[in-house]
Amino acid sequence: MFLVDVMNKLTSYIKPYWKWALLAPIFMFIEVICDLLQPTMLANIVDNGIKQGDIPYIIHTGAKMFCIALAGMVGGMGCTVASSITSQNFGADLRSAVFKKIQSFSFLNIDKFKTSSLITRLTNDIVHLQMMVLMSLRMMIRAPLLFIGGIIMAVSLNAKLSLILVISIPLLMVVLYTRMKKSRPLFSAVQQKLDKINAVIRENLLGIRVVKAFVRADHEKKRFADANDDLMFASMRAFGFVILIMPLVMLIMNLSIVGVLWLGGIYVNSGDLEVGEIMAYINYITQILFSLMMIGNMLLFMTHAAVSIQRVNEVLDTNIDICNAPDADTCPISSGEVLFENVSFGYGGSGEHLVLRDINFCAKSGQTIAILGATGSGKSTLINLIPRFYDVTSGSVKVDGRDVRVVDLATLRNGIGIVPQETVLFSGSIKDNIRWGKKDATDGEIVEVCKIAQAHDFITSFSEAYDTQLGQRGVNLSGGQKQRIAIARAIIKKPKILLLDDSTSSVDMVTEQRIQQGLKQFAKDCTIFIIAQRISSVLDSDTILILSDGQIIAQGTHYELLKYCSIYQDIYNSQLGEGVIIDA
Protein backbone atom coordinates (compact mmCIF):
# COMPACT_ATOMS: atom_id res chain seq x y z
CA MET A 1 0.00 0.00 0.00
CA PHE A 2 2.77 2.43 0.85
CA LEU A 3 4.28 1.90 -2.62
CA VAL A 4 0.98 2.88 -4.28
CA ASP A 5 0.70 5.89 -1.99
CA VAL A 6 4.26 6.98 -2.80
CA MET A 7 3.73 6.71 -6.55
CA ASN A 8 0.45 8.64 -6.37
CA LYS A 9 2.23 11.51 -4.61
CA LEU A 10 4.99 11.58 -7.21
CA THR A 11 2.77 11.44 -10.28
CA SER A 12 2.18 15.18 -10.54
CA TYR A 13 5.94 15.87 -10.63
CA ILE A 14 6.63 13.15 -13.21
CA LYS A 15 3.67 14.06 -15.44
CA PRO A 16 5.39 16.97 -17.29
CA TYR A 17 8.04 14.49 -18.47
CA TRP A 18 5.67 11.66 -19.35
CA LYS A 19 7.18 11.19 -22.82
CA TRP A 20 10.60 10.41 -21.38
CA ALA A 21 9.00 8.36 -18.60
CA LEU A 22 7.18 6.33 -21.27
CA LEU A 23 10.26 5.87 -23.45
CA ALA A 24 12.29 4.42 -20.56
CA PRO A 25 10.19 1.22 -20.13
CA ILE A 26 9.90 0.82 -23.93
CA PHE A 27 13.69 0.83 -24.25
CA MET A 28 13.97 -1.45 -21.22
CA PHE A 29 11.46 -3.88 -22.75
CA ILE A 30 13.71 -4.14 -25.81
CA GLU A 31 16.74 -4.87 -23.62
CA VAL A 32 14.89 -7.54 -21.58
CA ILE A 33 13.60 -9.33 -24.70
CA CYS A 34 17.13 -9.41 -26.06
CA ASP A 35 18.47 -10.78 -22.75
CA LEU A 36 15.79 -13.50 -22.67
CA LEU A 37 16.58 -14.66 -26.22
CA GLN A 38 20.30 -15.11 -25.60
CA PRO A 39 20.26 -18.31 -23.43
CA THR A 40 18.00 -20.20 -25.87
CA MET A 41 20.19 -19.24 -28.82
CA LEU A 42 23.27 -20.30 -26.86
CA ALA A 43 21.62 -23.66 -26.17
CA ASN A 44 20.93 -24.03 -29.90
CA ILE A 45 24.58 -23.36 -30.72
CA VAL A 46 25.68 -26.06 -28.24
CA ASP A 47 23.05 -28.68 -29.14
CA ASN A 48 22.61 -28.03 -32.87
CA GLY A 49 25.91 -26.48 -33.85
CA ILE A 50 28.80 -27.71 -31.72
CA LYS A 51 27.30 -31.16 -31.09
CA GLN A 52 26.56 -31.63 -34.81
CA GLY A 53 29.73 -29.90 -35.97
CA ASP A 54 27.68 -27.47 -38.06
CA ILE A 55 30.03 -24.49 -38.44
CA PRO A 56 27.72 -22.40 -40.72
CA TYR A 57 24.92 -22.80 -38.15
CA ILE A 58 27.24 -21.65 -35.36
CA ILE A 59 28.36 -18.57 -37.36
CA HIS A 60 24.82 -17.70 -38.44
CA THR A 61 23.36 -18.07 -34.93
CA GLY A 62 26.35 -16.26 -33.41
CA ALA A 63 25.80 -13.33 -35.80
CA LYS A 64 22.15 -13.15 -34.76
CA MET A 65 23.20 -13.21 -31.09
CA PHE A 66 25.58 -10.32 -31.76
CA CYS A 67 22.84 -8.28 -33.44
CA ILE A 68 20.42 -9.03 -30.61
CA ALA A 69 23.08 -8.07 -28.04
CA LEU A 70 23.66 -4.81 -29.94
CA ALA A 71 19.91 -4.08 -29.91
CA GLY A 72 19.86 -4.83 -26.18
CA MET A 73 22.71 -2.39 -25.62
CA VAL A 74 20.81 0.34 -27.51
CA GLY A 75 17.73 -0.42 -25.41
CA GLY A 76 19.75 -0.23 -22.18
CA MET A 77 21.39 3.06 -23.15
CA GLY A 78 18.07 4.53 -24.28
CA CYS A 79 16.45 3.56 -20.97
CA THR A 80 19.34 5.10 -19.02
CA VAL A 81 19.07 8.42 -20.89
CA ALA A 82 15.25 8.61 -20.67
CA SER A 83 15.12 7.63 -16.99
CA SER A 84 17.93 10.07 -16.10
CA ILE A 85 16.16 12.98 -17.82
CA THR A 86 12.90 12.11 -16.04
CA SER A 87 14.45 11.67 -12.58
CA GLN A 88 16.65 14.78 -12.72
CA ASN A 89 13.79 17.01 -13.86
CA PHE A 90 11.52 15.41 -11.28
CA GLY A 91 14.06 16.14 -8.54
CA ALA A 92 14.53 19.74 -9.67
CA ASP A 93 10.78 20.39 -9.77
CA LEU A 94 10.16 18.73 -6.40
CA ARG A 95 13.01 20.63 -4.77
CA SER A 96 11.65 23.86 -6.24
CA ALA A 97 8.15 23.05 -4.94
CA VAL A 98 9.45 22.34 -1.43
CA PHE A 99 11.55 25.52 -1.44
CA LYS A 100 8.59 27.61 -2.62
CA LYS A 101 6.42 26.07 0.09
CA ILE A 102 9.01 26.96 2.74
CA GLN A 103 9.08 30.53 1.41
CA SER A 104 5.32 30.73 1.99
CA PHE A 105 5.61 29.50 5.60
CA SER A 106 4.54 31.79 8.38
CA PHE A 107 6.85 32.23 11.35
CA LEU A 108 4.71 29.68 13.20
CA ASN A 109 5.20 27.14 10.40
CA ILE A 110 8.94 27.79 10.39
CA ASP A 111 9.04 27.32 14.17
CA LYS A 112 7.58 23.83 13.68
CA PHE A 113 10.54 22.61 11.59
CA LYS A 114 14.18 22.92 12.56
CA THR A 115 16.35 24.61 9.95
CA SER A 116 18.70 21.62 9.82
CA SER A 117 15.75 19.31 9.16
CA LEU A 118 14.49 21.49 6.30
CA ILE A 119 17.96 21.46 4.73
CA THR A 120 18.08 17.66 4.97
CA ARG A 121 14.65 17.38 3.38
CA LEU A 122 15.62 19.71 0.52
CA THR A 123 18.83 17.83 -0.18
CA ASN A 124 19.28 14.27 1.11
CA ASP A 125 15.61 13.27 1.11
CA ILE A 126 14.93 14.59 -2.38
CA VAL A 127 18.08 12.88 -3.68
CA HIS A 128 16.62 9.61 -2.36
CA LEU A 129 13.42 10.29 -4.27
CA GLN A 130 15.35 11.12 -7.44
CA MET A 131 17.13 7.80 -7.14
CA MET A 132 13.82 6.05 -6.53
CA VAL A 133 12.36 7.43 -9.78
CA LEU A 134 15.56 6.55 -11.68
CA MET A 135 15.58 3.00 -10.33
CA SER A 136 11.84 2.60 -10.82
CA LEU A 137 12.10 3.44 -14.51
CA ARG A 138 15.02 1.03 -14.87
CA MET A 139 14.99 -1.77 -12.31
CA MET A 140 11.29 -1.80 -11.51
CA ILE A 141 10.64 -2.26 -15.24
CA ARG A 142 13.54 -4.61 -15.94
CA ALA A 143 13.14 -6.90 -12.92
CA PRO A 144 9.43 -7.82 -13.32
CA LEU A 145 9.82 -8.27 -17.09
CA LEU A 146 12.89 -10.42 -16.62
CA PHE A 147 11.18 -12.37 -13.82
CA ILE A 148 8.00 -13.13 -15.82
CA GLY A 149 9.82 -13.63 -19.10
CA GLY A 150 12.37 -15.90 -17.47
CA ILE A 151 9.66 -18.10 -15.97
CA ILE A 152 7.90 -18.36 -19.34
CA MET A 153 11.13 -19.26 -21.15
CA ALA A 154 12.22 -21.72 -18.42
CA VAL A 155 8.87 -23.53 -18.33
CA SER A 156 8.73 -23.69 -22.12
CA LEU A 157 12.25 -25.12 -22.14
CA ASN A 158 11.55 -27.85 -19.56
CA ALA A 159 8.48 -27.95 -17.32
CA LYS A 160 9.86 -30.70 -15.05
CA LEU A 161 12.89 -28.65 -13.97
CA SER A 162 10.55 -25.77 -13.10
CA LEU A 163 9.49 -27.63 -9.95
CA ILE A 164 12.64 -26.16 -8.39
CA LEU A 165 11.24 -22.66 -9.00
CA VAL A 166 8.05 -23.61 -7.16
CA ILE A 167 10.18 -24.08 -4.03
CA SER A 168 12.86 -21.40 -4.38
CA ILE A 169 10.70 -18.44 -5.46
CA PRO A 170 8.30 -18.49 -2.44
CA LEU A 171 11.26 -18.92 -0.05
CA LEU A 172 13.06 -15.96 -1.58
CA MET A 173 9.89 -13.83 -1.50
CA VAL A 174 9.38 -14.51 2.22
CA VAL A 175 12.99 -13.54 3.01
CA LEU A 176 12.83 -10.33 0.95
CA TYR A 177 9.46 -9.33 2.43
CA THR A 178 10.80 -9.81 5.98
CA ARG A 179 13.84 -7.68 5.14
CA MET A 180 11.66 -4.89 3.73
CA LYS A 181 9.25 -4.88 6.69
CA LYS A 182 11.95 -4.85 9.38
CA SER A 183 14.14 -2.22 7.72
CA ARG A 184 11.63 0.65 7.39
CA PRO A 185 11.81 1.90 11.03
CA LEU A 186 15.60 1.50 10.92
CA PHE A 187 15.91 3.80 7.89
CA SER A 188 13.57 6.31 9.54
CA ALA A 189 15.97 6.45 12.49
CA VAL A 190 18.88 7.08 10.07
CA GLN A 191 17.17 10.18 8.63
CA GLN A 192 16.47 11.54 12.12
CA LYS A 193 20.12 11.09 13.08
CA LEU A 194 21.10 12.86 9.86
CA ASP A 195 18.90 15.80 10.91
CA LYS A 196 20.73 15.90 14.23
CA ILE A 197 24.22 15.90 12.74
CA ASN A 198 23.21 18.68 10.31
CA ALA A 199 21.93 20.71 13.28
CA VAL A 200 25.26 20.33 15.12
CA ILE A 201 27.26 21.29 12.01
CA ARG A 202 25.06 24.32 11.31
CA GLU A 203 25.20 25.60 14.89
CA ASN A 204 28.96 25.15 15.02
CA LEU A 205 29.63 26.95 11.74
CA LEU A 206 27.30 29.84 12.55
CA GLY A 207 28.73 30.21 16.05
CA ILE A 208 32.38 29.49 15.26
CA ARG A 209 33.53 32.82 16.70
CA VAL A 210 31.75 32.16 19.98
CA VAL A 211 33.25 28.66 20.08
CA LYS A 212 36.75 30.06 19.68
CA ALA A 213 36.15 32.95 22.08
CA PHE A 214 35.07 30.58 24.86
CA VAL A 215 37.64 27.92 23.92
CA ARG A 216 34.90 25.33 23.49
CA ALA A 217 36.34 23.54 20.49
CA ASP A 218 36.75 20.31 22.46
CA HIS A 219 33.13 20.48 23.59
CA GLU A 220 31.96 21.01 20.02
CA LYS A 221 34.14 18.15 18.81
CA LYS A 222 32.49 15.89 21.37
CA ARG A 223 29.00 17.06 20.32
CA PHE A 224 29.83 16.31 16.71
CA ALA A 225 31.44 12.97 17.60
CA ASP A 226 28.34 11.94 19.55
CA ALA A 227 26.01 12.92 16.70
CA ASN A 228 28.33 11.29 14.17
CA ASP A 229 28.46 8.07 16.20
CA ASP A 230 24.68 8.06 16.54
CA LEU A 231 24.36 8.32 12.74
CA MET A 232 26.98 5.61 12.24
CA PHE A 233 25.29 3.17 14.64
CA ALA A 234 21.85 3.87 13.17
CA SER A 235 23.23 3.28 9.66
CA MET A 236 24.98 0.10 10.80
CA ARG A 237 21.75 -1.21 12.30
CA ALA A 238 19.80 -0.42 9.13
CA PHE A 239 22.29 -1.66 6.57
CA GLY A 240 23.67 -4.39 8.86
CA PHE A 241 20.28 -6.06 8.94
CA VAL A 242 20.15 -5.90 5.13
CA ILE A 243 23.66 -7.37 4.83
CA LEU A 244 22.89 -10.20 7.26
CA ILE A 245 19.97 -11.29 5.07
CA MET A 246 22.09 -11.42 1.91
CA PRO A 247 23.86 -14.75 2.68
CA LEU A 248 20.45 -16.38 3.09
CA VAL A 249 19.35 -14.97 -0.28
CA MET A 250 22.53 -16.22 -1.97
CA LEU A 251 22.13 -19.62 -0.31
CA ILE A 252 18.64 -20.03 -1.80
CA MET A 253 19.92 -19.01 -5.23
CA ASN A 254 22.93 -21.34 -5.14
CA LEU A 255 20.86 -24.27 -3.87
CA SER A 256 18.46 -23.66 -6.76
CA ILE A 257 21.31 -23.84 -9.27
CA VAL A 258 22.65 -27.01 -7.58
CA GLY A 259 19.14 -28.49 -7.82
CA VAL A 260 18.99 -27.72 -11.54
CA LEU A 261 22.40 -29.34 -12.12
CA TRP A 262 21.49 -32.41 -10.08
CA LEU A 263 18.01 -32.91 -11.57
CA GLY A 264 19.17 -31.84 -15.04
CA GLY A 265 22.01 -34.37 -14.92
CA ILE A 266 19.48 -37.13 -14.28
CA TYR A 267 17.41 -36.00 -17.29
CA VAL A 268 20.51 -35.80 -19.52
CA ASN A 269 21.48 -39.36 -18.59
CA SER A 270 17.95 -40.53 -19.38
CA GLY A 271 18.03 -38.71 -22.72
CA ASP A 272 15.16 -36.34 -21.82
CA LEU A 273 17.35 -33.22 -21.84
CA GLU A 274 20.27 -31.84 -23.83
CA VAL A 275 23.41 -30.29 -22.27
CA GLY A 276 22.72 -26.97 -23.98
CA GLU A 277 19.24 -26.90 -22.50
CA ILE A 278 20.73 -27.27 -18.99
CA MET A 279 23.06 -24.33 -19.73
CA ALA A 280 20.09 -22.25 -20.93
CA TYR A 281 17.98 -23.27 -17.95
CA ILE A 282 20.72 -22.28 -15.48
CA ASN A 283 20.86 -18.89 -17.21
CA TYR A 284 17.09 -18.53 -16.93
CA ILE A 285 16.90 -19.57 -13.28
CA THR A 286 19.76 -17.15 -12.51
CA GLN A 287 17.86 -14.38 -14.33
CA ILE A 288 14.65 -15.24 -12.48
CA LEU A 289 16.18 -15.32 -9.00
CA PHE A 290 18.40 -12.28 -9.61
CA SER A 291 15.41 -10.33 -10.91
CA LEU A 292 13.46 -11.35 -7.81
CA MET A 293 16.34 -10.19 -5.65
CA MET A 294 16.43 -7.00 -7.71
CA ILE A 295 12.74 -6.47 -6.93
CA GLY A 296 13.50 -7.04 -3.25
CA ASN A 297 16.33 -4.52 -3.32
CA MET A 298 14.09 -2.03 -5.07
CA LEU A 299 11.37 -2.53 -2.46
CA LEU A 300 14.03 -2.06 0.21
CA PHE A 301 15.12 1.18 -1.41
CA MET A 302 11.47 2.17 -1.72
CA THR A 303 11.12 1.54 2.00
CA HIS A 304 13.98 3.96 2.57
CA ALA A 305 12.50 6.38 0.06
CA ALA A 306 9.07 6.09 1.71
CA VAL A 307 10.60 7.68 4.82
CA SER A 308 11.91 10.52 2.65
CA ILE A 309 8.53 10.87 0.92
CA GLN A 310 6.86 11.20 4.31
CA ARG A 311 9.35 13.87 5.41
CA VAL A 312 9.06 15.83 2.15
CA ASN A 313 5.28 15.62 2.24
CA GLU A 314 5.25 16.93 5.80
CA VAL A 315 6.56 20.16 4.29
CA LEU A 316 4.34 20.12 1.19
CA ASP A 317 1.21 19.20 3.18
CA THR A 318 1.76 21.77 5.93
CA ASN A 319 -1.20 24.09 6.25
CA ILE A 320 -0.08 27.70 5.94
CA ASP A 321 -1.75 29.49 8.84
CA ILE A 322 -0.93 32.95 7.47
CA CYS A 323 -2.44 33.39 4.02
CA ASN A 324 -4.52 35.87 2.06
CA ALA A 325 -8.25 36.05 2.51
CA PRO A 326 -10.22 35.18 -0.67
CA ASP A 327 -11.17 38.84 -1.14
CA ALA A 328 -7.97 40.37 0.25
CA ASP A 329 -7.74 44.15 0.10
CA THR A 330 -4.94 45.26 -2.24
CA CYS A 331 -5.16 49.01 -1.58
CA PRO A 332 -1.69 50.26 -0.58
CA ILE A 333 -1.03 51.52 2.92
CA SER A 334 -1.51 55.28 2.81
CA SER A 335 -1.32 56.80 6.30
CA GLY A 336 0.45 54.15 8.37
CA GLU A 337 -1.89 54.47 11.35
CA VAL A 338 -1.72 51.38 13.59
CA LEU A 339 -4.37 50.36 16.10
CA PHE A 340 -4.19 47.48 18.60
CA GLU A 341 -7.62 46.57 20.00
CA ASN A 342 -7.76 44.08 22.90
CA VAL A 343 -4.93 42.05 21.37
CA SER A 344 -3.87 38.81 23.03
CA PHE A 345 -1.41 36.37 21.51
CA GLY A 346 -0.07 32.92 22.28
CA TYR A 347 2.27 30.88 20.07
CA GLY A 348 0.42 28.09 18.33
CA GLY A 349 -2.84 29.99 18.69
CA SER A 350 -3.11 28.79 22.27
CA GLY A 351 -5.05 30.85 24.74
CA GLU A 352 -3.50 29.04 27.70
CA HIS A 353 0.03 30.45 27.55
CA LEU A 354 -0.37 34.01 26.31
CA VAL A 355 2.70 36.04 25.43
CA LEU A 356 0.65 39.25 25.06
CA ARG A 357 -2.56 40.09 26.93
CA ASP A 358 -5.11 42.85 26.34
CA ILE A 359 -2.87 45.21 24.34
CA ASN A 360 -4.57 48.49 23.45
CA PHE A 361 -2.96 51.55 21.88
CA CYS A 362 -3.10 53.70 18.75
CA ALA A 363 -0.17 55.01 16.71
CA LYS A 364 -1.14 57.95 14.52
CA SER A 365 0.44 58.60 11.16
CA GLY A 366 3.92 60.09 11.51
CA GLN A 367 4.22 59.30 15.21
CA THR A 368 7.14 57.51 16.84
CA ILE A 369 6.18 54.78 19.29
CA ALA A 370 8.86 53.43 21.61
CA ILE A 371 8.56 50.11 23.40
CA LEU A 372 10.52 49.39 26.57
CA GLY A 373 10.48 46.35 28.79
CA ALA A 374 12.51 43.55 30.28
CA THR A 375 13.78 40.66 28.19
CA GLY A 376 10.88 38.31 27.41
CA SER A 377 8.19 40.91 28.04
CA GLY A 378 6.84 40.52 24.49
CA LYS A 379 8.30 43.56 22.70
CA SER A 380 9.42 41.79 19.51
CA THR A 381 6.28 39.66 19.45
CA LEU A 382 4.14 42.80 19.55
CA ILE A 383 5.69 44.40 16.47
CA ASN A 384 5.70 41.04 14.62
CA LEU A 385 1.91 41.18 14.68
CA ILE A 386 1.86 44.34 12.54
CA PRO A 387 3.26 42.80 9.30
CA ARG A 388 1.26 39.69 10.22
CA PHE A 389 4.17 37.37 10.80
CA TYR A 390 1.81 35.85 13.36
CA ASP A 391 -1.96 36.15 13.71
CA VAL A 392 -3.45 37.41 16.95
CA THR A 393 -5.13 34.87 19.22
CA SER A 394 -7.86 37.37 20.01
CA GLY A 395 -8.57 41.03 19.30
CA SER A 396 -7.34 42.78 16.17
CA VAL A 397 -4.43 44.72 14.71
CA LYS A 398 -5.51 47.41 12.25
CA VAL A 399 -3.47 49.39 9.74
CA ASP A 400 -5.19 52.37 8.09
CA GLY A 401 -8.36 51.23 9.84
CA ARG A 402 -8.25 47.77 8.16
CA ASP A 403 -7.69 44.54 10.03
CA VAL A 404 -4.35 43.19 8.80
CA ARG A 405 -6.02 39.81 8.23
CA VAL A 406 -8.09 41.22 5.36
CA VAL A 407 -5.19 43.07 3.71
CA ASP A 408 -3.20 41.36 0.94
CA LEU A 409 0.05 40.11 2.51
CA ALA A 410 2.32 41.51 -0.20
CA THR A 411 0.52 44.88 -0.05
CA LEU A 412 0.77 44.98 3.75
CA ARG A 413 4.44 44.08 3.92
CA ASN A 414 5.42 46.31 1.00
CA GLY A 415 4.22 49.22 3.09
CA ILE A 416 6.32 48.22 6.10
CA GLY A 417 10.08 48.52 6.59
CA ILE A 418 11.66 46.17 9.11
CA VAL A 419 15.03 46.04 10.82
CA PRO A 420 15.00 42.79 12.81
CA GLN A 421 16.73 42.21 16.11
CA GLU A 422 19.19 39.82 14.48
CA THR A 423 20.73 41.56 11.49
CA VAL A 424 20.74 39.30 8.45
CA LEU A 425 22.78 40.22 5.39
CA PHE A 426 23.25 38.07 2.31
CA SER A 427 26.31 37.18 0.26
CA GLY A 428 26.79 39.69 -2.52
CA SER A 429 27.72 43.35 -2.65
CA ILE A 430 26.64 46.05 -0.19
CA LYS A 431 24.65 47.61 -3.02
CA ASP A 432 22.84 44.32 -3.67
CA ASN A 433 21.91 44.00 -0.01
CA ILE A 434 20.44 47.50 0.13
CA ARG A 435 18.47 46.84 -3.06
CA TRP A 436 16.66 44.06 -1.21
CA GLY A 437 14.45 46.89 0.01
CA LYS A 438 13.85 48.23 -3.50
CA LYS A 439 15.13 46.17 -6.40
CA ASP A 440 15.11 49.06 -8.90
CA ALA A 441 16.74 51.60 -6.57
CA THR A 442 19.15 53.96 -8.27
CA ASP A 443 22.70 54.56 -7.07
CA GLY A 444 21.61 58.03 -5.92
CA GLU A 445 18.83 56.59 -3.77
CA ILE A 446 21.24 54.09 -2.24
CA VAL A 447 23.72 56.80 -1.32
CA GLU A 448 20.92 58.96 0.14
CA VAL A 449 19.60 56.28 2.52
CA CYS A 450 23.13 55.23 3.50
CA LYS A 451 23.89 58.81 4.53
CA ILE A 452 20.73 58.86 6.67
CA ALA A 453 21.72 55.49 8.22
CA GLN A 454 25.24 56.86 8.83
CA ALA A 455 26.68 54.08 6.64
CA HIS A 456 28.00 56.12 3.70
CA ASP A 457 31.32 57.10 5.30
CA PHE A 458 32.44 53.60 6.28
CA ILE A 459 31.21 52.14 2.98
CA THR A 460 33.22 54.63 0.90
CA SER A 461 36.28 53.86 3.02
CA PHE A 462 36.35 50.40 1.44
CA SER A 463 38.40 50.08 -1.75
CA GLU A 464 35.35 48.92 -3.73
CA ALA A 465 32.88 51.12 -1.84
CA TYR A 466 29.29 50.03 -2.55
CA ASP A 467 30.52 47.13 -4.70
CA THR A 468 32.32 45.59 -1.72
CA GLN A 469 31.46 41.90 -1.53
CA LEU A 470 30.09 40.70 1.80
CA GLY A 471 30.94 37.32 3.23
CA GLN A 472 28.33 34.93 4.54
CA ARG A 473 25.94 36.83 6.84
CA GLY A 474 28.10 39.96 6.42
CA VAL A 475 30.97 38.40 8.33
CA ASN A 476 33.47 41.07 7.16
CA LEU A 477 31.46 43.88 8.80
CA SER A 478 31.14 44.90 12.43
CA GLY A 479 27.83 44.59 14.27
CA GLY A 480 27.19 48.33 14.05
CA GLN A 481 28.02 48.43 10.34
CA LYS A 482 25.62 45.59 9.62
CA GLN A 483 22.85 47.33 11.56
CA ARG A 484 23.31 50.55 9.61
CA ILE A 485 23.15 48.72 6.27
CA ALA A 486 19.99 46.97 7.50
CA ILE A 487 18.45 50.37 8.35
CA ALA A 488 19.32 51.68 4.87
CA ARG A 489 17.75 48.57 3.36
CA ALA A 490 14.54 49.14 5.31
CA ILE A 491 14.08 52.84 4.56
CA ILE A 492 14.97 52.79 0.85
CA LYS A 493 11.45 51.52 0.11
CA LYS A 494 10.08 54.65 1.86
CA PRO A 495 7.65 52.66 4.01
CA LYS A 496 4.61 54.08 5.76
CA ILE A 497 5.45 52.01 8.85
CA LEU A 498 9.00 51.39 10.08
CA LEU A 499 9.77 48.72 12.69
CA LEU A 500 13.16 49.04 14.42
CA ASP A 501 13.76 46.08 16.75
CA ASP A 502 16.73 47.09 18.88
CA SER A 503 18.36 48.04 15.60
CA THR A 504 20.99 50.44 16.99
CA SER A 505 22.20 48.34 19.92
CA SER A 506 25.70 48.04 18.37
CA VAL A 507 25.90 51.72 17.42
CA ASP A 508 27.37 54.44 19.64
CA MET A 509 25.04 57.07 21.07
CA VAL A 510 26.29 59.91 18.86
CA THR A 511 25.76 57.90 15.68
CA GLU A 512 22.38 56.75 16.96
CA GLN A 513 21.24 60.36 17.47
CA ARG A 514 22.33 61.22 13.93
CA ILE A 515 20.38 58.26 12.56
CA GLN A 516 17.25 59.34 14.44
CA GLN A 517 17.59 62.93 13.24
CA GLY A 518 18.00 61.69 9.67
CA LEU A 519 14.93 59.45 9.98
CA LYS A 520 12.82 62.39 11.21
CA GLN A 521 13.64 64.36 8.09
CA PHE A 522 13.47 61.46 5.62
CA ALA A 523 10.38 59.75 7.01
CA LYS A 524 8.18 62.61 8.18
CA ASP A 525 4.92 60.79 7.39
CA CYS A 526 6.19 57.39 8.51
CA THR A 527 4.90 55.74 11.69
CA ILE A 528 7.97 54.45 13.50
CA PHE A 529 8.11 51.74 16.17
CA ILE A 530 11.33 51.58 18.16
CA ILE A 531 12.31 48.76 20.51
CA ALA A 532 15.32 49.89 22.49
CA GLN A 533 17.32 49.02 25.58
CA ARG A 534 18.81 52.51 25.98
CA ILE A 535 16.32 55.02 27.33
CA SER A 536 18.22 57.80 25.58
CA SER A 537 17.02 56.29 22.29
CA VAL A 538 13.35 56.94 23.05
CA LEU A 539 13.24 60.22 24.93
CA ASP A 540 11.68 62.22 22.09
CA SER A 541 9.13 59.53 21.09
CA ASP A 542 5.49 60.59 20.86
CA THR A 543 4.42 57.63 22.97
CA ILE A 544 6.44 55.22 25.09
CA LEU A 545 4.90 51.84 25.91
CA ILE A 546 6.15 50.01 29.00
CA LEU A 547 5.67 46.24 28.69
CA SER A 548 5.85 43.80 31.55
CA ASP A 549 4.92 40.14 31.35
CA GLY A 550 3.05 40.66 28.08
CA GLN A 551 0.95 43.62 29.25
CA ILE A 552 1.18 47.38 28.78
CA ILE A 553 1.53 48.65 32.34
CA ALA A 554 2.07 52.28 31.33
CA GLN A 555 2.12 54.50 28.27
CA GLY A 556 2.77 58.17 27.69
CA THR A 557 5.48 60.67 26.82
CA HIS A 558 8.86 60.77 28.52
CA TYR A 559 7.80 63.53 30.95
CA GLU A 560 4.45 61.90 31.71
CA LEU A 561 6.06 58.58 32.57
CA LEU A 562 8.71 60.27 34.69
CA LYS A 563 5.90 61.68 36.83
CA TYR A 564 3.80 58.61 37.56
CA CYS A 565 5.50 55.39 36.34
CA SER A 566 7.89 53.97 38.94
CA ILE A 567 9.28 51.34 36.55
CA TYR A 568 10.14 54.01 33.98
CA GLN A 569 11.71 56.12 36.74
CA ASP A 570 13.87 53.17 37.79
CA ILE A 571 15.00 52.59 34.18
CA TYR A 572 15.72 56.28 33.73
CA ASN A 573 17.67 56.61 36.96
CA SER A 574 19.66 53.41 36.40
CA GLN A 575 20.80 54.53 32.96
CA LEU A 576 21.08 58.31 33.21
CA GLY A 577 21.41 58.89 36.93
CA GLU A 578 19.08 60.50 39.45
CA GLY A 579 18.40 64.19 39.05
CA VAL A 580 19.45 64.25 35.41
CA ILE A 581 16.83 65.81 33.15
CA ILE A 582 17.16 65.62 29.38
CA ASP A 583 14.95 67.84 27.28
CA ALA A 584 12.85 65.90 24.81
Describe the structure.
- The chain is an alpha/beta fold.
- Helices cover 63% and strands 10% of the residues.
- The protein has helices at residues 2-14, 18-50, 55-103, 107-112, 115-157, 163-206, 208-213, 217-270, 275-316, 379-384, 409-414, 430-434, 443-452, 456-460, 479-491, 509-522, 558-564, 566-576; strands at 338-345, 356-363, 368-373, 394-399, 402-403, 416-419, 428-429, 469-470, 497-501, 527-531, 543-548, 551-556.
- Helix 16 (509-522) links the parallel strand 9 (497-501) and strand 10 (527-531).
- Helix 2 packs parallel to helix 5 (115-157), helix 2 (18-50) packs antiparallel against helix 9 and helix 6 runs antiparallel to helix 8 (217-270).
- The chain is elongated.
- The model is unreliable at 579-584 (pLDDT under 50).
The general outline is elongated
Name the helix and strand elements from N-terminus to C-terminus, one letter apiece.
HHHHHHHHHEEEHEEHEEHHHEHEHEEEHH
- Count of helix runs: 18
Largest sheet at a glance? 6 strands, mixed
Query: Structural class, from helix and strand content?
Result: alpha/beta
**Rg, alpha carbons:** 35 Å
* Mean pLDDT reading: 78
Fraction in beta strands = 5-15%
- The total of beta strands comes to 12
Which residues form runs of ≥5 with pLDDT under 50?
579-584
**Portion of residues within helices:** 55-70%
In what order do the strands lie side by side in the largest sheet?
6-9-10-3-11-12
Distance between the termini: 72 Å
